[in-house]
């Protein structure tokens, strides 16, 4: 069962679903519009193979912070983070995509599942379209629909990205 705006607001009010900072403006009729955070990274182009044993993040990622506008270059891979820190209950998952405005501008991203029991800021890989775009920090960028599980998850998310704040580069 997917949650409506009333269902989401009810879970937030009860403290079952935690979203910080929370603003009712991000609640849509069928999900949350998550906002773009300040931290992001550009995936760098290189011919050097990435090795899990000798991973030098500076060779593959350029981390950046913006206080106001992120200038997104054409046909470039980014890691963006959400402004919101989420705490998902054990019986709720999120399905995350782009807001349609950004898809219409040529942005793409893989479908992303936010697991039951996840806590943290989300870091999402996004590829930009064919022309530069300026995006404001705090702008509603992602859309997440939420689905109630038939039973509470017996094993909540306990992966390497749990409880992280801000941008999370790949952990190999």
Which shape, going by the Cα principal axes? globular
Number of domains: 1
Largest sheet: 9 strands, antiparallel
Please tally the helical runs, counting DSSP H or I stretches of 4 or more residues.
Answer: 3
Count of β-strands: 11
Poorly predicted parts: none
**CATH homologous superfamily caption:** Deoxyuridine triphosphatase (dUTPase)
The topology string of helices and strands comes to HEEEHEEEEHEEEE
pLDDT average, as an integer? 94
Helix content: 10-25%
Give a quick summary of the entry:
With 172 residues, the protein is mainly beta. The chain has helices at residues 5-14, 57-60, 100-104, and strands at 18-20, 27-28, 31-43, 61-65, 69-72, 77-87, 92-98, 112-114, 119-127, 133-136, 140-148. The chain has a single domain (5-44, 57-148), classed as Deoxyuridine 5'-Triphosphate Nucleotidohydrolase, Chain A.
């Amino acid at each position: 069962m997917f949650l409506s705006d009333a269902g989401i607001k009810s879970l937030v009010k009860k403290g079952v679903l935690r979203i910080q900072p929370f603003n009712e403006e991000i609640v849509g009729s069928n999900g949350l519009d998550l906002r773009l955070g300040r931290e992001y990274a550009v995936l760098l182009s290189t011919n050097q193979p990435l090795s899990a044993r000798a991973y030098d993040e500076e060779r593959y990622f350029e981390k950046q912070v913006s206080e106001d506008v992120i200038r997104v270059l054409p046909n470039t891979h980014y890691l963006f983070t959400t402004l919101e820190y989420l705490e998902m209950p054990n019986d709720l998952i999120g399905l995350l995509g782009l807001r349609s405005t950004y898809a219409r501008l040529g942005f793409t991203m893989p479908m992303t599942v936010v697991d039951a029991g996840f806590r943290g800021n989300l870091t999402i890989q996004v590829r930009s379209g064919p022309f530069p775009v300026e995006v404001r920090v705090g702008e509603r960028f992602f859309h997440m629909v939420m689905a109630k599980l038939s039973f509470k998850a017996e094993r909540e998310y306990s992966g390497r990205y749990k409880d992280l704040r801000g941008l999370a580069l790949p952990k190999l």
